[in-house]
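2.7 Reproducibility. Because tokenized structures are sensitive to small changes in the input, we list the exact sequence used for Gluconate 5-dehydrogenase, including any N-terminal residues retained from the expression construct. No trimming or masking was applied before prediction.
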Amino acid sequence: MNNLFDLTGKVAVITGASSGIGVQFAKALADQGADIAILARRYDKLEPLCKEIESTGRKVLAVRCDVTKEEDVKLAVKSIIDKFGKIDILMNNAGVTSIGSVDTLEETEWDRIIDTNLKGVFLMSKHVVPHMKEQKYGKIINTASVCGLIGSKAIPLHAYNASKGAVIALTKGMGTSLAQYGITVNAIAPSLFESEMTEKSLFQSDYLKSYNMLCPAGRPGMTGELNGAAIYFASDASSYTTAQILFVDGGWTSV
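Resulting structure tokens (single pass, no recycling of outputs):
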């Protein structure tokens, strides 16, 4: 029987790959056989991951890219196509968060969150989708969040809520209209996972204690617990799955 999760011969692009979930996604897809392009604004942070993936025998390309700038995105996509000849999988993972209510947020902070979390998905998809249409095949996986579906009484995350809710809606729109070209578009929506983005805010003792009490699993997510979702959406196991949002949240959105 064929291994539906085998990614040998596929080329995967992961944005926001300098830390946290992006690093996990890159390793997970490489472990399944994919060659990897890792993108981030902080190019120096990509070097350790680059070496780790290369040690597994996979080809890897590190690219400095600010996903909020279209020229950066265009150049990054060109460099990936020049090296690998194609892009099979795009993981739109670059993201930032901000604590703040609509009545206290500065406009510049609102723009920073929306530009990275939403505009970044738009720009990367804009410049990758034509290549996927041409080859009549593609897997796009967006990183959403439970915060795109529900709010938080304890900590206001209004800009983040707005950006991730929009990512969910964009995923559904893209998934339905691009299916005719052999392109699936889905999203992974995590709840609380430890990362560079959350360790100094949501992982503080008071919030974490409250989260653990309310979450059915009784704890936040751990390293590697998003890998199965990423591999499923990136592989041919999900060939008839599109415009779907998979909440990997320990049951958080069901209570």
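Strands lie at 11-15, 35-40, 60-64, 89-92, 138-143, 183-190, 245-248.
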